[in-house]
Fold this sequence. Notes:
With 222 residues, this protein is an all-alpha fold. It has one domain (3-205). 67% of the residues lie in helices and 0% in strands. The radius of gyration is 19 Å and the shape is flat.
Amino acid sequence: MNAVRFAAAFALGGFSVAAFGDWHLFPLPIAALAALCWLWAREPAPRAAAALGFAFGAGLFLVGWSWVYVSLHDFGGMPWPLAALATLLVCLYLALFPAAVGYVQAWLASPPAVRLMVVVPALWTLAEWLRSWLLTGISWLTLGYSQLDGPLAGFAPIVGVFGVSFLAAVAAGAFAVLARLRGDRATYAAAGLVVALAIGGWALRAIDWMTPHGEPVAVSLL
């Protein structure tokens, strides 16, 4: 596998963390995942695809989980070598989930457009769901949470955070298909899918899903 592609996947994962912070760049994780799908499409070997997924996950969690080191060292008093090692190990463990997505999507035989817009989103969502409960579960940096300010948030009351993760991954796969710049049915389907998700999401955001009952209750949090 090309080392440049490995480094690019790592950078894509790291940059996507910006959507979870104060910047609220909700298109960024979709664009990053679309670029990862584009890289996967050029690495048909399952092991190479797994390496790309691992690099993406390593970038995502090493950047997004840097606060764990601060918690362990600055507030917990753990010596910095142990805190750094513990943070590194847990991030590398979490990177195994996108690595598994990369391996399985390359291993399964399916047309490219179906793989990008159906198989990868389904596997990505399954991996996030497994990560949320396996070995007590770590749901930090779930893709769906990055879409709170975007149109896909309109689907959240209906499908929940993992449903939003799936739809975001579908959008990413569709953009990866569009990047091929081919005028075939798959390209038209991808374009229609992106438009439908955007319009449907914005329309659902206009619905008031909750109705208050009774007088407001004052509470204090200590």
